[in-house]
Amino acid sequence: xxxxxxxxxxxxxxxxxxxxxxxxxxxxxxxxxxxxxxxxxxxxxxxxxxxxxxxxxxxxxxxxxxxxxxxxxxxxxxxxxxxxxxxxxxxxxxxxxxxxxxxxxxxxxxxxxxxxxxxxxxxxxxxxxxxxxxxxxxxxxxxx
Length: 144
Hints:
Blueprint: H1 7-21, H2 29-39, H3 44-53, H4 55-72, H5 82-91, H6 93-131
Helix pairs in contact: 1-2, 1-3, 1-6, 2-3, 4-6, 5-6
């Protein structure tokens, strides 16, 4: 914050970086965070740092996102044990790809719905928190 990153921008970086970090598809969050940083003129280092630090949350939340996507779209149980998925990939790769694609985009819809709520809420909570650590502005001795 001493180098031009104010509390509001830092809160945006953390909120957006954290929400992007839990996107329910592996291997795309770095690109998504980079694009968000460019689009919203955020600090690239800050948003990517949050994205990388929150990476374990992606693994913790991926199955709940998949499950919520199935419920939202009234899909039959698509989640299977890893051994069944690997067997399906070996025996019918196109069918496995279609099943995994459906599972992932349904989870992404749930993520997007939650992101629309989570980002503004996190910014609202984090901005006053980071304001506590902002350096005091010195009063202008000329009274300007």
